[in-house]
Design brief:
With 89 residues, the protein is of the alpha/beta class. It has a single domain, classed as Rossmann fold (3-Layer(aba) Sandwich). Helices cover 31% and strands 27% of the residues. It has four helices and six strands. The strands form two sheets. The protein has a four-stranded mixed β-sheet. It has a two-stranded antiparallel ribbon with strand order 2-3.
Length: 89
């Protein structure tokens, strides 16, 4: 059985300090440890594809964004701008 973590970003994984968001070292360490133990980790956010771009730098297996409007998973090709434009999104 594979364990999968679905982690909310804003206000859960990140903390707001002096107008800037950051990830506390303890949260990042927990995420890294869970992945070392074989868990998959997906960030979940209401952010759009453009806003979620910087989240891809985190040690995760994928991102579920725009309230479920898109999913980017490790090993899967990212959605192209053409596919988004043709979908009307």
């Amino acid at each position: 059985m594979t364990n999968i973590l679905f982690i909310d970003v804003d206000g859960t994984l990140t903390t707001l300090v002096d107008g800037d968001q950051y990830i506390p070292p303890s949260a990042l360490a927990g995420l890294i440890e869970a992945r070392k133990r074989g868990a998959l980790a997906y960030l979940c956010t209401g952010r759009s594809l453009a806003e979620a771009g910087t989240l891809g730098e985190l040690p995760v297996d994928g991102i579920i964004g725009a309230g479920g409007g898109f999913v980017i998973s490790e090993g899967a090709p990212p959605p192209s701008s053409r596919s988004w434009a043709s979908s009307g999104a």
